[in-house]
Write a structure and sequence with these properties.
The protein is of the alpha+beta class and 310 residues long. The chain folds into two domains: 197 residues, 2-Layer Sandwich (BirA Bifunctional Protein, domain 2); 103 residues. It is 51% helix and 16% strand. The longest helix has 78 residues. The radius of gyration is 35 Å and the shape is elongated. The protein starts with a strand and ends with a helix.
Length: 310
């Protein structure tokens, strides 16, 4: 998750204008942000638990007006990678479900924008941007939108502790787990075996190394064929991770093959043992039959010698 902070020169209005591919005017700064020509915006929707239709410009201008500090945090963003296995409608429903879960959890407004993969990037990079207000949304007596108390996730860890809450880092882990559960349910419902693991590589214990977030500037330079220290580092890490995964896959296949061989050998030995038991049982039956026949023959001979009894 990322935040929109004034201290970094960002505004909620400009951020959402870009993500939604719209033209929005920031009433606080007087600047107009026009991104109507932006390509790749597949779907947008504003979600809330309020019984009213919301206007994107009004929501984010209110988010800016609700903060007075020069270093204020005016929005929080979640970026989720949507499974390529799902079709467009399934990806949309999954993104909406996750956005709604954030609305339900914090009582905020969520502005969803789904983006298609860029022409020059990974063609499977379907993703969604979800911008949240940092304050809880309500309607006043006149049915006007108001943003009031800060959402729980925006509180400091000191404040959260005093309220009996866990840290914000723990909260973020819980939300990531929620996303993984929703995504995995969608994959399962669609008939796919692939699953998402929200845990870090360290928590998974898979010996893989995490890459560094590249950001928009590094990404743009990469698309132009310009290497940076971050992009070179990430490429090296990706190569090492790929080799590690390949080694694990080979080891897994070898282990499976060895297991199959052991099972096959065990089965062959079982068949031999069963055949030996069958032959032994057959031998015992024949031996018993021979003994019975010999006994009957002996009895007949005895009767012939002694003659019939009177």
């Amino acid at each position: 998750t990322k935040t929109v902070n004034r201290s970094s020169g960002r505004t909620a209005v400009a951020s959402m204008a870009y993500r939604a591919g719209e033209k929005l005017t920031d009433e606080r700064t007087g600047l107009t942000h026009d991104f109507k020509r932006k390509e790749g915006v597949v779907y947008t929707e504003i979600l809330s638990n309020l019984d009213t239709e919301l206007d994107r410009s009004k929501v984010w201008n209110l988010a800016e007006k609700s903060e007075n500090r020069k270093d204020a945090r005016t929005a929080r963003e979640w970026v989720i990678a949507l499974p390529d296995e799902l079709d467009e409608e399934q990806r949309k429903e999954l993104a909406k479900e996750f956005a709604q879960s954030l609305v339900d959890r914090y009582g905020v407004i969520a502005d969803l924008a789904i983006h298609a993969p860029s022409h020059n990037g990974n063609d499977k990079n379907h993703h969604a941007h979800i911008l949240l207000t940092t304050r809880k949304a309500e309607l006043d007596q006149d049915h006007n939108l108001v943003l009031k108390d800060k959402a729980d996730i925006e509180l400091s860890n000191t404040k959260r502790k005093s309220l009996g809450m866990g840290t914000s880092q723990e909260e973020i882990k819980q939300i990531r787990a929620t996303w993984a559960n929703l995504a995995n349910h969608a994959l399962e419902y669609a008939g796919y075996r692939e699953r998402i693991d929200h845990r870090s590589y360290a928590d998974q214990g898979n010996q893989l190394q995490a890459t560094i977030h590249e950001g928009s500037k590094v990404t743009q330079m990469r698309r132009k064929g310009i290497d940076t220290e971050i992009s070179r580092f990430n490429d090296t890490i990706k190569q090492q991770n790929s080799q590690q995964l390949q080694y694990k896959q080979q080891h897994k296949e070898q282990t499976l093959e060895q297991g199959f061989n052991r099972v096959e050998k065990g089965f062959e030995q079982w068949k031999k043992d069963q055949e030996a038991k069958r032959l032994e049982l057959e031998h015992k039956k024949q031996l018993k039959l021979q003994q019975e026949q010999a006994m009957k023959l002996k009895q007949r001979k005895s009767m012939n010698r002694n003659g019939p009894s009177l």
